[in-house]
Fold this sequence. Notes:
Layout: H1 3-8, H2 19-31, H3 48-58, H4 76-79, H5 85-88, E1 93-99, H6 111-115, E2 119-123, H7 132-135, E3 141-145, H8 146-150, E4 166-170, H9 179-184, H10 191-200, E5 206-208, H11 211-223, H12 236-247, E6 248-254, H13 276-279, H14 285-295, H15 300-306, E7 308-312
Bound molecules: cytidine-5'-monophosphate.
Amino acid sequence: xxxxxxxxxxxxxxxxxxxxxxxxxxxxxxxxxxxxxxxxxxxxxxxxxxxxxxxxxxxxxxxxxxxxxxxxxxxxxxxxxxxxxxxxxxxxxxxxxxxxxxxxxxxxxxxxxxxxxxxxxxxxxxxxxxxxxxxxxxxxxxxxxxxxxxxxxxxxxxxxxxxxxxxxxxxxxxxxxxxxxxxxxxxxxxxxxxxxxxxxxxxxxxxxxxxxxxxxxxxxxxxxxxxxxxxxxxxxxxxxxxxxxxxxxxxxxxxxxxxxxxxxxxxxxxxxxxxxxxxxxxxxxxxxxxxxxxxxxxxxxxxxxxxxxxxxxxxxxxx
Length: 319
Ligand code: C5P
């Protein structure tokens, strides 16, 4: 059986990855760039209902609001949108789609189905133009990592990819969530471009996720995994799924857990092949996917044929 077949049954583990990926994971463990030191428990399994309750209780979505130092002294309360992301959409959405950038979505013909949702979340520089048949063309929210803001190649200020959508940026802070250290030394400097963009386009909703939220998500993945997971933040995909579970009544996720179209093609829009994009090296992606597999509903054939899993919104979870 392949790793992906194991994933379909929620039973994959690190030793199923290629020696190259296993080595990369071990190197990230010993580097521990973000100074992770986990003191909590590690459980093998708990029921879907309890797991969902724990997620709702422990991984509350949070964005920077500018009231904490060093941001308050820097005048960020005036820079950040007045309306918090959690309230931007009033009572929230009904049905939502999360569209990962995996190569496996090519030739899926899922575009119409994706666009039929009330809101659609996409990631980083993933385009819709030219790929509408497979990925649709509606974008409500785009999650972007700090490289998109910092790297001139992405033309963040001018590209139409980042216009007419709600933007949600993130960058890994130290595990201790020391905001001073983070501000001085982010992975990629997102703070300066964020300021500039906010001043240029003040009407566009644009948030930065609070690193506390990012590391709460990481803690939750580790708490529900017996192996030690990579001491690096979860992927944008996992962050986006959890964000939408807060904003929506129901979330359909496409090509996160791979379908039968599984491929080493990293992104549907780039000719670059690396199994790490799907199974993880830097991000604890394999473990994220096992966790999502545990809480999903939706049929086995939706998973195999569409790479689709359905997750409940937290509003519908009563604990
Ligand atoms: O590569 P990027 O982070 O922009 O892709 C968005 C998200 O889609 C990833 O964070 C990951 O969760 C998911 N993804 C995946 N398999 C791939 C490519 C992306 O699961 N081959």
